[in-house]
Amino acid sequence: MSTEPKECCLGSVGFIGLGIMGQPMAENLLKAGYKVCVWNRTESKCECLVEMGADMLRSPGDVAAHGPKVLFVCVTGTEDVKEILFSEKGIAKSAKQGLIVVDHSTIDAKEAADFADCLAGAGVKYLDAPVSGGDVGAKAGTLSIMVGGDEKAYETVRPMLEVLGQKVNYMGKSGMGQVTKSCNQVMVACNLMGVCEAMMLAKKNGLSLEKMIEAVSGGAAGSWSLSNLGVKIKDGDWSPGFMVKDLLKDLGFVSHLSQVSHAPLTGTNMVETLFQVLAAEGEGELGTQALAKVYEKLGGFEF
Amino acid sequence: MSTEPKECCLGSVGFIGLGIMGQPMAENLLKAGYKVCVWNRTESKCECLVEMGADMLRSPGDVAAHGPKVLFVCVTGTEDVKEILFSEKGIAKSAKQGLIVVDHSTIDAKEAADFADCLAGAGVKYLDAPVSGGDVGAKAGTLSIMVGGDEKAYETVRPMLEVLGQKVNYMGKSGMGQVTKSCNQVMVACNLMGVCEAMMLAKKNGLSLEKMIEAVSGGAAGSWSLSNLGVKIKDGDWSPGFMVKDLLKDLGFVSHLSQVSHAPLTGTNMVETLFQVLAAEGEGELGTQALAKVYEKLGGFEF
Q1: Which residues of A are designated catalytic?
Q2: According to the CATH classification, is domain A13-174 in 3.40.50.720?
Q3: Does the N terminus or the C terminus of chain A have fewer Cβ atoms within 10 A?
Q4: pLDDT tens digits, A242-259
């Protein structure tokens, strides 16, 4: 296949990391009219995109050398990002002046800010741009995207981000996208704890879970968690929209951020502990609503 | 003023307890075309309703003797309800067979079920029907009303409840209205804790609170608490929609219910403790969003 840059109406971009999130995001960029060159650690995951017209390259450095103005990254952990950026075959070594790296991975906020500093030396702008909305949002192009970093670079990539997400927000300097994601996960965790405890109280006292959800969802007790995960708990459906192990990963970043900034998160720490119980019992790949299973154990009952 | 029952298009009802909630609720029944006779411990609070055409009576028993088919109660505590129902000048002594008492007070669920049992002996149906939505909802007639007790009695009073509230739900046998309210307050408390912790994390890390709220409200972190109380916390507005001391009262019922039903509410117990800190410092009459002030102390900062 060709590795020559091609002319395209909307320009050429790179995409690194074609997992459950990255694959549909890269697809959406292709469909929108961007020329996309891709790299993924497991090569076979590139096939589908290549069939749609993407170019597959041999390393993150090759993608950068290919000359895109914007390079998207969407991988799992801080170490993965570090390797993609700074290893021997990484982006920094072969990037051209002016490249903008948009990192959709959820990683440590302080490290994200460090990456931006390091890349600035090579004339590369790095935006931390974690997303929320899951694989469903990635496919539908309805993600929330929270962006930190250079504001001019943000304005440049905004039309592309609006292909990937419905709510695209500039949050401030480097790291602020990740801080926002941490704030998001604090509420995701605490709200879910409230839902589990309310549902336990209902179940233990003979109140219909269905009626309870219906009666209170629209008022002061209402939340996304109640409307979406409450129903799954009621049905004993533990299948993952978002996995326990992934929320635990994110709560690790929350925990680190809370330590370095002296922000004692009493409730979030407690929920994190309860999620650790689930993971310790080998249930890390269930959906986060499986937090209800910890309450089943605590209360000696079943939903 | 007349104490004679009058003919009226929609029938005659009694209303006992004209506080911040009861006053506008009784007004709405009057405006809807019901003939209303009222009693309140502090007589002066009846004046406004009397001017609108209500009859003021001398005791709860007098209201019951006046012959309404339905008698609403809206007072503060379990003991207040007990006195109104069962004291020398209470409802039970003079109620006519078939009277339906609709109790909008938030009280202990087990006591509510006991009240229903005791009144059944006198041929009186008692519905526990706590509300959510505050004085704003009471005025606008947009309360959520959660009803437990005899279903036929519920069907009889439903048209009246639909004057008072927008979401009227039958929850099951006696006490289930109160259990629902407790479930509601569990989530109200836990969601608010999540909001406070997320906002502390944002503030401590230099993230704009306004931008954070805007970026995450519509997604998986979204809640009524974030959209309504998050904004007040950002502005340092501690004025009460719903007071700390009132939520603490309700959390007392939650706590009792959790004890008798062996439902260990780890998160809710923690938030209750934090609210107790506020009350101990004399801040029980602030709005519940003042929970954020406890986090200010824990984290040594100010919103």
Answers
A1: 181
A2: yes
A3: N
A4: 999 999 999 999 999 999
